[in-house]
Amino acid sequence: MEQVIERPLPKPSSADYASARLLEALVEAELALEFLRRGLTRNAAGKAFQAWRAVLAALLKLELERLKALAKSEEERRWLEERAVPRVPTSRMMSLSRLLEELGYERLTYITDRALNLHDYQYHGPDPDMALSKYRTREEAAYFIKSLIEVVAEYAEKLKNRVAWTEEHERAYSALVGGLG
User: Fold this and answer.
1) Other C-beta atoms within 10 Å of 123: how many?
2) Which of 73, 124, 132, 172 is the most buried (most CB within 10 A)?
3) pLDDT tens across 105-132, in order?
4) Domain 2-180: CATH class, spelled out
């Protein structure tokens, strides 16, 4: 599992990039489940967020040409190719999700909003006043972490026929689905 995360990603222009990011999503989601089992909800939130970010990177790569066709300028097209796909900036995840929704992907902004809430939780922890985090307790956060992990597994299933799905993907997917029980 660690070898997958530590392995360098292919160049974003590579055909294997979406496949590598989807494998990363599966492994990050599995790590999130492991942290949940250990009671480490803030770490689990961070891993669930990273898993969703990797799913978005895979989607952005798979849909890059269609997204570039929606762009209003050459500068936007360049930004999508050079910045959005390889980095998926946290500050632009909502707008990138909205663009993907325009291409027919459903609920992406809702899911991304959930992921960003978990990202806040990772840094601030439970917050009874809900000023810095949307989750008042560790149990609330754990519920939404698991919910996001389930969505990552759903997207992996949907995308498996659009990427180079390897035995490594299958093992990671099976472990994740088994862990979700």
Assistant:
1) 11
2) 172
3) 999 999 999 999 999 999 999 999 989 8
4) mainly alpha
